[in-house]
Design brief:
The protein has helices at 34-44, 61-65, 85-92, 118-128, 183-187, 197-207, 227-239, and strands spanning 3-7, 28-29, 32-33, 49-54, 74-79, 104-109, 112-114, 132-138, 146-147, 160-161, 173-182, 212-216, 221-223, 254-256, 261-262, 267-269, 272-274, 279-280, 285-287, 290-291, 296-297, 302-304, 307-308, 313-314, 319-321, 324-325, 330-331, 336-338, 342-343, 348-349. By secondary structure, the protein is an alpha/beta fold. α3 packs across α6. The chain is elongated, with a radius of gyration of 22 Å. This is Sugar phosphate nucleotidyltransferase.
Length: 360
């Protein structure tokens, strides 16, 4: 049995206002908290015991998931008092692990949506005799990521942080945020201070001659760090482009949760999800968007590639395109919000207050 650590302590600053009242892994994607998809995929791969490394709004997780039995898991929770970085967070939960020193522990981040073959990563770790194995994926433009070149056998050669010149781009392989550690390696991470696995642990292991193995898996992969990415990830889950056994319904163009009301002539497309108790009025069009629980889309409104927070209201004929509307915000009729607009939780926008001309 492989056990896992799930890093869910980040503040999700880039996702505000979605994360003002909700930790990033608990923001709904395709009808359930995003974390549900990760837990379900880990369970499907044979993982039974998961320790959640929490920090920001740590009190939210356990009341929702409990001991994990509803998902066929045993969940435990460990909270950081002070931010410890990725490596520090891993070390901080080590006392809850059950693995022997030479046994593998799966570690993954709470903001990555991926189709990674978890069992293949663990098998690669075991068959190569690695100390640490990393999921690598290939991207067209790696400048925003840490590069991980490997040799012909997949053994990691270096860790190169965010290259800026063409000469520095020696590979298109990046660290995709899922790892398998031997338990003994976790126990060697320093305690009581922040530690970054990317900048300290991995380079230090490499310099000491440890065996770090990379496994390239270029199936679906998306960092959900921005609102636009989060909305796209939710839509991809609904449409089945991103695999998850936790989507509460059949994959398709739309997902309407129990208790939601959608007018017969309203049009839902592009992986749109409408949350419980939400209402979409006649003539409204919602494409590639997430309408969270209790939100209202009034008659004739158009919502594209946007997220409408819980209890928010979008007025008649209002247009949202690439916007994020915080929980309980009210956008009056005849407004247009485009190009990454963010409206804070509880804000009120009066009728016709924000408009874009046709040439913008």
């Amino acid at each position: 049995m492989t056990e896992a650590i799930l890093l869910v302590g980040g503040k999700g600053t880039r996702l505000r206002p979605l994360t003002v009242h909700t930790p990033k892994p608990m923001v709904p994607a395709a009808g359930v908290p995003f974390l549900t998809h990760q837990l379900a995929r880990a369970r499907a791969a044979g993982v039974e015991h998961i320790v959640l490394a929490t920090s920001y709004l740590a009190e939210v997780f356990e009341p929702y998931f409990g001991d994990g039995s509803a998902l066929g898991l045993h969940l435990e929770y460990v909270t950081e008092v002070e931010p410890l970085g990725t490596g520090g967070a891993i070390r901080n939960v080590a006392h809850r692990l059950r693995s022997a020193p030479d046994e593998p522990v799966l570690i993954f981040n709470g903001d990555i949506l991926t189709g990674l073959d978890i069992e293949a990563l663990v098998d690669t770790h075991r068959t190569t005799g690695a100390d640490v194995s990393l999921h690598l994926t290939r991207v067209a433009d790696p400048r925003a990521f840490g590069l991980v070149p490997t040799d012909g056998t997949g053994r990691v050669q270096a860790f190169l942080e965010k290259p800026q010149t063409p000469e520095e781009i020696v590979t298109d392989q990046i660290n995709a945020g899922a790892y398998v550690f031997n338990r003994s390696v976790i126990d060697e991470i320093p305690t009581g201070r922040p530690v970054s696995v990317e900048r300290e642990t991995f380079p230090g292991l490499l310099a000491a001659g440890a065996h770090l193995q990379g496994m390239v898996d270029s199936t679906y992969w998306l960092d959900l760090g921005t609102p636009q990415a989060f909305v796209r990830g939710s839509a991809d889950l609904v449409m089945g482009r991103a695999p998850s056994p936790a989507v509460p319904g059949r994959c398709g163009d739309r997902l309407v949760l129990d208790g939601a009301e959608v007018a017969p002539d309203a049009k839902l497309t592009g992986g749109t999800v409408v949350g419980a108790g939400a209402r979409v009025a006649p003539g409204a069009r919602v494409d590639g968007s997430a309408v969270l629980d209790g939100a209202v889309i009034e008659a004739g409104a158009v919502v594209r590639d946007s997220l409408v927070g819980a209890g928010a209201r979008i007025g008649a004929r209002t247009v949202l395109d690439g916007a994020v509307i915080g929980d309980r915000a009210e956008i009056g009729p005849d407004n247009e919000l485009r190009a990454g607009a963010r409206i804070w939780c509880g804000a009120r926008i009066p009728q016709g207050a924000i408009r874009f001309s046709s040439d913008q």
